[in-house]
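user: can you give me the structure for this one chain? tokens are fine.
assistant: on it. calling the predictor now.
[tool input]
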Amino acid sequence: MSGISGSMGSLPGDHPSHRMRISNMAALSQNLDTDALVEANMKAAEVPLVELQQTQAQQAQLQAVWRSLQKKLEGFKNTAESLHLEGNFNAFKAQTPPNSGFTLTPSDNAHIGHHDISVASLARPGVVVSSGLADPDKASVLNIPPDGALSHGIITFLIGDHLIGGSYKTIRIDQSSGFTLNDLASAINKAKIGVHAMVMRTGQPGRPYSLSLSSSKNGLNFRVAGTEGIGMTFHVVQKASMAHLTVDGVPVVSSSNDVKDAVPGTVLHLVSPTSGNAPVGVSIVHDRKKITSNIQSFVKNYNDLINFISENSRYDKATGRGGPFLGSFTVTDIRNRLATTLTKPITGNGPYHTLSDIGLDFGQDGRLTLNQSTLDRALGGDYKGVVGVLAGSAGKDRTEGVLRTLHSDLDDLTNPVTGPVTGELSALTNEGESTEKEIEHKSESLSDLRDSLEEKYSNLQSLLGGLNAKQNYVSQQIAKGTL
């Protein structure tokens, strides 16, 4: 303590100004908030990090917008795919009078034309029904003898005609399978012999449940050829039959009531014999409604794409900020390329050479509008011409339709490797990775700075604490009059 008393001895101990300095030192030691000082320094040092994080968020937002543009382009391409090939216009419908006894469904492989059809009979399965039992799950189907010795039952079917390719199939039921009506039905179905079995409620007094058997194919007859130990009888209630019809005077026989390709490229769905077997006229025509629906979807998807681009290319005067696509050469090029293709006329295609000729008008705002009446007249007047201007035509006079060219453009624009949007996303990804590295580096530097500040302010607090202790000692000595 001699050092302290010596160093302080030269000061007049009772001088007020020196007592004030000692008091201030004590206050400084007691009120020093080192945590607040560290945080204040860190807040100033973290400004560049916050700016980097804001940049990273903006880059993520830009990536999301460009990905949305890619999806819009891909969706528009998918819509264009329904119109860019001649085969896309092979949409047909059948015009059939009511109560015809049949309906007709054309496929894309059908042909325009008129056909006369008459239906003589429908295809039916053979049906056999058993005598009844009181309960389907409790009553036994076995004809048990008085001695109760019978332990199984056998039922034999003749599938088909025994003279022409028929075959016998045997079903056995025993203790393992069970002996009820439902057990017998299950055993027959599991055997897969061409006969389907089910238990039906007939409502006959005392014996309301019977086994209904039907051939799995129309036109296939069968019968129960014999039984052993089965206490039921079986009788035929419906003979199997084939469907008989004529198409343009040509006899047709079918085992199904859905007759494929009797009219090429169609399926005839037989419902009932035609009245008096008189032929019914049916016409196959172009399904303009389906084509119109595809064109409407095309217009909607294109305008959705243009609206998305426009919304993200605006300049906001209030904020002084532009949209993510404002000034983008890539977006401008995409929009110009699509507009050029959609407005370019084609040659060698009859009366229609532009989309406007068939009701698709390209406005000054870059959007498409559909004039439905013009389209309807075009489809009714020259269906092939509409197909030509949209999809082109093959053969020696081959032409490239507007939408075929457009589809090729969209292939390029949506290419996952070389497409322009892919390039923008790749550049943004690289920028994002660079920003992420800067953030990591800055975060490490700030962590080191925090450690350094905490150490410095801790040392300062220790120093001030030591001075405070010396102050207390000196104050005590002064109070004792030793200094």
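assistant: here you go. Confidence is low (pLDDT under 50) at residues 1-23. The chain has four domains: 2-55+425-480, 81-87+289-414, 92-123+242-286, 127-238.
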